[in-house]
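RECORD TYPE: protein structure
NAME: dCTP deaminase
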Amino acid sequence: MGLKPDKWIREKSLNEAMITPFCEGLVGEGVVSYGLSSYGYDIRVSDEFKIFTNINAEVVDPKDFNENNVVDFKGDICIVPPNSFALARTVEYFRMPKDTLAICLGKSTYARCGIIVNVTPFEPGFEGHITIEISNTTPLPAKIYANEGIAQVLFLEGDEQCETTYSDRKGKYQSQTGITLPRILKQQ
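PREDICTED:
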């Protein structure tokens, strides 16, 4: 399994629409950087957010998530409250090759401000926008800039294709658009 370079990412994105829209260079002046880098792709956060709130004194339950736990926000700058959390999505839409897994890590610009970004792996065959989890670990409000970089994606190509891809097993987040809240498959 090898880490894929910029040339591979560019070819997959331009020829197979692995990342759309795709930015061929790294954009970084006056913004939190995004676009193609040496061994990865810096994704952008869209202008749609779901900010966690405690106004209803609900318990967060991943098996029975109550949408009253979040407040929808759309704008160029999202303020994440102190010691709080927001969900967002990428500007980019991904179509993962059947032999490739992607891992996403937060950007140092935000990490150095106490903002932690968590994204689960992009499995082989996955398609959709990526839901991003943003934690403000500081005792102060934190700004998140829409349409700018939020995290870096690293692509790992397997030595061989897996037997069952995310799309083959009809993963519950397949083809997601927008910010997708937790889902649990119902027993039949």
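COMMENT: The chain has one domain: 2-157.
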